[in-house]
């Protein structure tokens, strides 16, 4: 019913869990399924959404226990979301810089080895942090997992934050791992806190989120996950930030939290080889020995509407409680009475689905790749279909983002393009012998292999292991030399002209391989994100301030007021008085407030904030009185309501930014992203076509983002290196 600029619409769309596809005018809906647990009604509604609103034939089970529905026309998305909502399902914050779907061991609540059913803690985490002001505009996405014992079937080592149930000195609690992640720079999580008392769990989760929101890198998207904070500043510094954040949260809430009244038991850890996602372990007995769990093998994670309905009818027929998605893109059916096991298995097999654990029915995991994904480089699903006879765990990703989690597979791989003699070829970077659970190691980097020869490579590795291995593939791989790993792909590289012609095409492709670009510059969107993140952080701090005020904790109230004004001062300094930074550093908000006081300006927005800064500098939290603090609260609230709004800030910036466009090269290399783009855009808006201008930006990601954004604005853009880590960008407009 209305129009919105694309730069503004994209982050809103992502916040609602809606992804664009390679295909025009259709969207992918990512439905969050915490812990992968679905009841009958939810299965029915997902099938109805697929049948009514999607032009596709299947839904896709993801490695993060989500469900993805493809090919939904953009104008039908709202209706699809409303229908999902009738079953208690949401896509909210399944994408974007938010807390993503919270995952858990697929056997939570029924596993005979667990210390506790983590479902209650997981559900409380989901409820607490969805729509939470602290998590709406994080520097980057944040992934959380829950495991009910030290076996860690939820793969905590690959998560930003992993919660693992354990006992210590007779008390129940959790071990926290933090800083894990895959993608272009895999990093294993480290122990952030070896024991957190049960009642304090969510305070500790909030403290980690606060650290990520406050300190992770917002300038470089490729360097903004929590794992990079550990790399940049070290574990000791991150732990100190976490400790200080926790102290403040506990000052606000007290040391006790919501009592979830979960039943804990002390259980021995299962054998290290046991993995809840390995279908070869099923059927297994639940903790209630009168019930069993069976697996449903789902080839490459795809289910049709008919299959969804069949599963729903089976659950209803035998009065079974739910079905669960595993991170291996398969399903588990829980709560089956032991005396009905054979009957349920037969009904499942008669329906065309299977609980068979034969090779190829469970072991290959794949992301959609170039079938739908705008980031995909290679046809990962096409390749995965060729590999479906493997007994090893094989994970295939279409790009280095690694949605199929290749670094924790027995044999993993991600797609990439490589040039040989000027020609582009589809390749896969391979990984061997990986695991994502507590105590395991990520895979070793293997050779790169042309897409059409990957099947041969995988077969060679599998055959060598069958001949030489003794059960543990990861240990066997680590006994091999790098030269031997590489030797399995040595003769598979492009060599003679005939082979090169074939290898230059992706799986099942009739035309030469190309890398299609579906992305675009995000500088304007980054400006919105930068402001929105600050606005939401102020809102969170305002909520804390209210709690402290009600408790008459005046020192904490003044600390909250100080924090709000420091955030505002930092935003003003970065927008109106940006400083060149040649190294990664944390913005010093206290210093920004001091610096702002000294700036000369005639803008009421800044002058009034300077007055608040001076008042706070002079305020002594230890001696101030109640009325004095109350008056200051009112003044801060008034300023925030009048000036600290996204539109007001951007309008003021655009109206007052000055760029000397008369010079031969407009040097914006001192401005960080996205401030360099905002200034360039302002200068261009003052020009009449036809014209030509040259801007100098910081090289690397700042220049790349600005170039892509200017192209999206309709300008013709060329660039050249300018030395000293800079790039000169020529912008032209020829139409009048």
Please characterize this protein's 3D structure:
- The protein is of the alpha+beta class.
- Helices cover 38% and strands 18% of the residues.
- The chain contains 21 helices and 24 strands.
- It has a 5-stranded antiparallel sheet.
- A hairpin with a 5-residue loop joins strand 4 (58-61) and strand 5.
- Helix 1 (6-15) packs across helix 14 (523-550).
- The protein is globular, with a radius of gyration of 27 Å.
- It starts with 5 loop residues before the first helix and ends with a strand.
- The model has no long low-confidence stretch (mean pLDDT 90).
Could you write a compact summary of the structure shown?
The protein is of the alpha+beta class. Helices cover about 40% and strands about 20% of the residues. Helix 1 packs across helix 14 (about 525-550) and helix 2 runs antiparallel to helix 7.
The largest pleated sheet is described as: 5 strands, antiparallel
Helix content: 25-40%
Integer-rounded radius of gyration = 27 Å
Distance between the termini: 31 Å
Number of extended strands: 24
| Number of distinct helices | 21
Q: What structural class do you assign from the helix and strand content?
A: alpha+beta
> How confident is the prediction overall: mean pLDDT?
90
Outline the low-pLDDT stretches. none
Apparent shape: globular
Strand order of the largest sheet: 1-2-5-4-13
Strand fraction: 15-25%
């Amino acid at each position: 019913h209305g129009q919105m600029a694309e730069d503004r619409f994209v982050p809103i769309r992502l916040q609602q869990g809606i992804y664009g596809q390679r295909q025009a005018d259709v969207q992918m809906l990512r439905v969050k399924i915490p812990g992968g647990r679905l009841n009958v009604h939810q299965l029915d509604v997902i099938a109805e959404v697929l049948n009514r609103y999607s032009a596709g034939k299947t839904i896709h089970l993801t490695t993060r226990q989500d469900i993805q529905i493809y090919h939904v026309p953009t104008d039908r998305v709202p209706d699809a979301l409303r229908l999902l909502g009738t079953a208690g399902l949401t896509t909210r914050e399944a994408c974007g810089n938010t807390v993503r779907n919270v995952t858990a061991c697929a056997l939570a609540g029924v596993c005979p080895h667990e210390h506790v059913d983590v479902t209650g803690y997981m559900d409380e985490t989901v409820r607490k942090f969805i729509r939470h002001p602290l998590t709406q505009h994080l520097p980057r996405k944040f992934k959380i997992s829950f495991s009910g014992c030290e076996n860690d079937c939820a793969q905590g080592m690959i998560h930003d934050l992993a919660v693992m149930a354990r006992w210590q000195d007779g008390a129940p609690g959790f071990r926290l791992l933090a800083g894990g992640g895959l993608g272009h720079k895999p990093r294993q999580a480290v122990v952030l806190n070896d024991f957190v008392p049960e009642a304090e769990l969510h305070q500790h989760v909030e403290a980690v989120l606060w650290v990520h929101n406050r300190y992770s890198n917002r300038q470089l998207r490729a360097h903004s996950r929590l794992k990079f904070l550990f790399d940049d500043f070290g574990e000791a510094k991150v732990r100190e930030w976490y400790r200080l954040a926790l102290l403040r949260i506990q000052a606000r809430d007290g040391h006790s939290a919501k009592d979830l009244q979960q039943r804990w038991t002390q259980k021995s850890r299962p054998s290290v080889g046991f993995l809840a996602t390995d279908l070869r372990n099923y059927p297994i007995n639940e903790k209630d020995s009168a019930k069993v769990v069976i697996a449903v093998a789902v080839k490459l994670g795809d289910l049709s509407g008919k299959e969804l309905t069949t599963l729903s009818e089976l659950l209803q027929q035998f009065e079974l409680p739910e079905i669960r998605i595993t991170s291996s893109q398969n399903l588990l059916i829980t709560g089956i009475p032991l005396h009905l096991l054979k009957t349920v298995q037969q009904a499942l097999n008669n329906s065309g689905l299977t609980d068979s654990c034969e090779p190829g029915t469970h072991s290959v995991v794949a992301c959609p790749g170039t079938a739908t994904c705008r980031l995909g480089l290679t046809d990962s699903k096409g390749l995965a279909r060729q590999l479906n006879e493997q007994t090893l765990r094989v994970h295939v990703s279409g790009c280095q983002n690694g949605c199929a989690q290749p670094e924790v597979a027995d044999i993993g791989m991600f797609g990439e393009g490589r040039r040989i003699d000027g020609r582009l070829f589809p390749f896969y970077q391979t990984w061997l012998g990986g695991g994502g659970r507590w105590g395991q190691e990520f895979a070793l980097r293997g050779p790169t292999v042309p897409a059409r020869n990957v099947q041969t490579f995988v077969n060679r590795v599998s055959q060598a292991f069958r001949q030489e291995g003794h059960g543990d593939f990861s240990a066997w791989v680590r006994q091999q030399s790098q030269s031997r790993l590489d030797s399995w792909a040595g003769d598979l590289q492009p060599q003679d002209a005939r082979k090169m012609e074939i290898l230059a095409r992706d799986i099942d492709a009739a035309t030469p391989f190309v890398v299609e670009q579906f992305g675009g510059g995000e500088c304007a969107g980054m400006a919105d994100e930068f402001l929105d993140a600050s606005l939401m952080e102020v809102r969170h701090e305002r909520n804390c301030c209210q709690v402290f005020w009600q408790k008459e904790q005046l020192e904490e109230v003044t600390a909250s007021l100080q924090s709000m004004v420091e955030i505002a001062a930092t935003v003003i300094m970065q927008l109106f008085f940006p400083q060149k930074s040649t190294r990664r550093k944390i913005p010093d908000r206290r210093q920004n407030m001091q610096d702002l006081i000294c700036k000369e300006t005639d803008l009421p927005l800044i002058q009034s904030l300077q007055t608040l800064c001076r008042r706070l500098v002079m305020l002594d939290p230890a001696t101030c009185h109640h009325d004095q603090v109350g008056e200051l609260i009112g003044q801060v609230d008034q300023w925030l309501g009048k000036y600290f709004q996204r539109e007001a800030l951007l309008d003021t910036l655009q109206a007052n930014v000055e760029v000397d466009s008369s010079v031969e090269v407009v040097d914006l290399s001192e401005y960080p992203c996205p401030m360099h783009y905002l200034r360039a855009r302002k200068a261009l808006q003052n020009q009449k076509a036809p014209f030509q201008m040259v801007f100098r930006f910081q090289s690397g990601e700042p220049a790349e983002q600005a170039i892509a954004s200017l192209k999206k604005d309709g300008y013709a853009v060329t660039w050249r290196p300018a030395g000293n880590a800079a790039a000169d960008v020529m912008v032209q407009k020829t139409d009048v």
